[in-house]
User: Fold this.
Amino acid sequence: MLHSPDNWKIEARREAIASSNFAWRFASYSRGKRVSPLFFLGDAVSVLREIPSESIDFCMTSPPYWGKREYENGGIGLEADYSEYITKLAEVFEEVKRTLKHTGSFWLNMGDTYLNKRLLGLPWRLALYLMDNQNWILRNSIIWNKIKGSPDNTLDRLRNVHENIFHFVKSSHGYYYDADAIRATPKKAKVVNGSIVSATGVTGVRYKRQIELSTELSPSEKEAAFLGLQSMLDRVKRREVADFRMIIRGQQRATHSPSGKVSGRARELQEKGFYFLKYHPKGAKPSDVWEIIPEDSQGRRLHFAAYPEDICRIPILATCPKDGIALDPFCGTGTTMLVSSILGRKSVGIDISTDYLVEAHDRCVSLL
Assistant:
């Protein structure tokens, strides 16, 4: 008997969304060449316990909000007390840490909430718990500025338009990080009337004048400063440096600290009379404030959490190797999995909702 196209789709979904044999399916997937995501239906802790230790390269997730939504099949987020919510999430992330390679990274996006007009600080409560009790190392705290946010009719506080994103690692050294993969394309220097002009308009004329007029520099220090400046302009011309700033004693203040005991740059300023701040020729790294609009442009039927594709790109490019496996233990409709696949990485998504996983599977298949 021939199957209808709809029946074939249903069978493909069932094959893709496994509710048993997690260990065997993961082992088979990790050895194979398939990049399309592997989805597991089940409780995050139970599923993760069947995944081998040190087998995941990258994890990024946005767990269910506490007390804001009712999810299919219950699950985390419906606890009577927020401290229990923190404890349950920590159980999941303890398993994440076990499955994560020592070179791996864990990125956590989490929104906050109010209780009896008190902002609870849930993202930081959880982050501190993970650091204090599970020895996670926090490398970055990112502010996700959602720019527009939701309508807010309160009359006694400001609108909330940001969420927290934390980057954790297991070890302070040796974790995978490709900074060049996330750098912005730098503007190019140019030559105007025979003189080099940096991307931001630095010609060296102002610095030369400051050196000439300085009463803080000795004659030998001035000579060294002129030579250093010309060398830096030549490096810009050869595109070894994208741009630079020159800090001259008595003209600009030392960055970070004026104390030579605290700052190496301040010590260099004291001893030489100048130093340079060099900009990377491949461009600047992103900052720890991300402006990303949480619009739902994928036409999803379910799951209204504001978790856009762009929020995953920097973490995946920077901290998941091209041959790595990404994980999302609360994958919802599969944004982490979709972006991982688009960027050529394998991925595993876990959720307790069949409807969400069906949506995630169809969404990934339709765009790959």
